[in-house]
Amino acid sequence: MTGRDKILYFLYLHRNGLTVLALSCLLAIYPLIYGNPYILGLTNLIGLYTIVVLGLNLFIGYAGQISLGHAAFFALGAYGSAILTTEWGFWPWPTILLVALGSGAVALLVGIPTLRLHGHYLAMATLGFNIVIYTVLVQWDELTGGPSGFYGVPSLAIGSWQFDSDLKLHYLVWAAALVCLTLALNLVRSGVGRGLAALAGDEVAARSLGVDTRTAKVKVFVLSAVLASLAGSLYAHTFGFVSPDTFNIFASVDFVTMVVVGGLGSVWGSLFGAALLTWLPEFIDLFESYKDIIHGLILVVVLMFLPQGLVTGLIDLARVRLARWRHRRA
Amino acid sequence: MLKVTSLCRNFGGLPALSEVSFSLQRGRVTALIGPNGAGKSTMINCITGVDQPDAGRVEYLGEEITGMPAYRVAHLGIARTFQNLRLFPRLSVLDNVLCGLTVQGGKSMFGALIRPPQVRNRERRLRLKAMSALDRFGLTDLADWPVDVLAYGDRKRVELARAIVSEPSLILLDEPVAGLNHEETALVGHEIRALRAQGYTLLLVEHDMDLVMGVSDHVVVLDGGRCIASGTPDEVRQNPLVLEAYLGRTAVMA
Description:
The complex is a heterodimer.
Chain A: H1 3-13, H2 15-33, H3 37-62, H4 70-86, H5 92-114, H6 119-139, H7 141-144, E1 150-151, E2 157-158, E3 161-162, H8 166-188, H9 191-201, H10 203-208, H11 213-239, E4 241-242, H12 249-262, H13 267-283, H14 285-289, H15 291-305, H16 310-329
Antiparallel strand pairs in A: 1-4, 2-3
Helix pairs in contact in A: 2-8, 3-8, 3-11, 3-12, 3-13, 4-5, 4-6, 4-11, 5-11, 9-11, 12-13, 12-15
Chain B: E1 2-11, E2 14-24, E3 29-33, H1 40-48, E4 55-60, E5 63-64, H2 70-75, E6 78-80, H3 93-99, H4 109-114, H5 117-136, H6 152-164, E7 170-174, H7 182-197, E8 201-205, H8 209-215, E9 218-223, E10 226-231, H9 233-238, H10 240-247, H11 249-253
Parallel strand pairs in B: 3-8, 3-9, 6-7, 7-8
Antiparallel strand pairs in B: 1-2, 1-4, 4-5, 9-10
């Protein structure tokens, strides 16, 4: 190998790690140069959604299942942290973990019976779960503040140093998002991740190769619920206010749209999907009033022309091209 | 090594298998033959836990595995291929073969998320193993290709590579040469003999009589869900019941 080949091979071998590193540097420097609080508020939201979409993409894109109820786990995280820290005086940091474990336990209870279902039935069951949680949030107003929402969630703090500005929160949120991104990248490159991909491709074959498909589905469902809950807790502490409408079934559909637009089974696509669908409405005024129509349209168009999603679809095309090209050269 | 006793399986009242018994000897190639609908694939499915038998026993290395879930059967070292190819279409050739190493990979999701050095090293080891299996079947150049763009013959070889990559103690091949041309069939026959020489135990379900007679030590004949004959290839070839099953009653009478 020549020097140039060695460098290229090194880049190829560590492509994921290096991309994470580059993205971290970019995210660390960018607010110092361009610290517009409005934009930072928006990118913080993107960071939070990225965490939800990463988990959901493992469940939908990798394991080939469907959930129209992930806004419910996002809600459990947000309301769990909000209520426990404000009303009961729990410490915020451990509460985030506690609530995440609680959401994981709920996911386990919901997942064990519902994950025996497939396709539309699973979609309906998870949708039903979302409606139940939403109704509880709206109706149980002594605890949740009802339709008008829950105010006064404290900021997270390290000692007396508060995460109270968009700039500080930027670092907190994106540190969490990048950690989750790295964990997801690790997972999909492991035997467990291949087991999930196998189960999405062909359940019978996956089982015959030794994948305990039932357990694997429940595990990844719980993992995705824990991530959604973490993002929810951070959401509550970031905005100081939570309202049930953030967590209705349309929010769940939006998360699924982010997964699909970004790319089924693409970790990087999750970031892209969350960013695109959070950002677009802010730049196109028309989007504001017709948001649901346009989201629906995007979903339909992507599914028709690139059923694997934008990023994954394009990568698949590139992979086939690259393989053909290498084959011709060899 | 594997012992099947009086296995029965009905589909809505129709017996697909009734009271079938046979056993596999370690290090031998046993062929399961019979006309279409004789119950061959049902038998493989019942052994591997893909389907559950209604009655009877399956024993493997002295342990009863009747009705055990498929993933646990796989962990005991029984690998199989499928009649109508069951590859993972969106994964690359290499990833498909890596999936065959599930039984040797870690099961901990936490370990997979954190990726400590031992997980990293295990992944490297599995990858080398998968690459050597690809090499054995001449698939090295295709390693990065998504499986669904490959030719049929290549896909068959990928499935074979996926079945043997974990070095299972028993391999069940469900029609490994169906749809392959003469040359490819000869290659698979060669490969089966090579596996036998390496000490593998195989159960072969096949229609191609030249292949069966060429590679098997022992042949079991099913017809209409019953075991009608068993023995060496030569014994089976001369058995009038077998001729009748294959050629029809009138042909034999005439």
